[in-house]
Design a protein that fits this description.
Elements: E1 15-17, E2 20-22, H1 25-39, E3 43-54, E4 58-68, E5 73-77, H2 84-97, E6 101-103
Parallel strand pairs: 5-6
Antiparallel strand pairs: 1-2, 3-4, 4-5
């Protein structure tokens, strides 16, 4: 019996770092960079997989919320490919919450 391996439709390679499973190598690398910036004192703390509840019982999950030492809060989504649904949800987040989602 042959076992089929799951392949992501955008060729993202699931990666584990610090016991955390990330959707892609790029997202795991961004997390590692955030930890370095936190150790340097530039980032006070950060959250992963931050949900935004949108009209119509729709939910958008942002990869990272960063709380910087200068008081700024950044919402960052690590993207390799932007789907039409992603673009629509990001626009809705901005309209509903007044928050801009940055892309890494």
């Amino acid at each position: 019996m042959k076992i089929q391996r799951f392949r992501h439709k955008f060729n993202a390679k699931p990666t584990e770092l610090d016991g955390i499973k990330f959707a892609s190598k790029k997202e795991a690398q961004y997390y590692a960079d955030l930890k370095l910036r936190q150790a340097a004192g530039l980032v006070l703390f950060f959250l992963r997989q931050v949900p935004f509840h949108l009209p119509g019982n729709i939910r958008y999950v942002c990869d990272f919320a960063e709380f910087l030492a200068d008081g700024e809060v950044r919402f960052v989504d690590v993207k390799g490919f932007k789907t039409d649904m992603y673009k629509l949800k990001v626009k809705q987040v901005k309209d509903v919450y007044g928050v801009t989602i940055e892309e890494a």
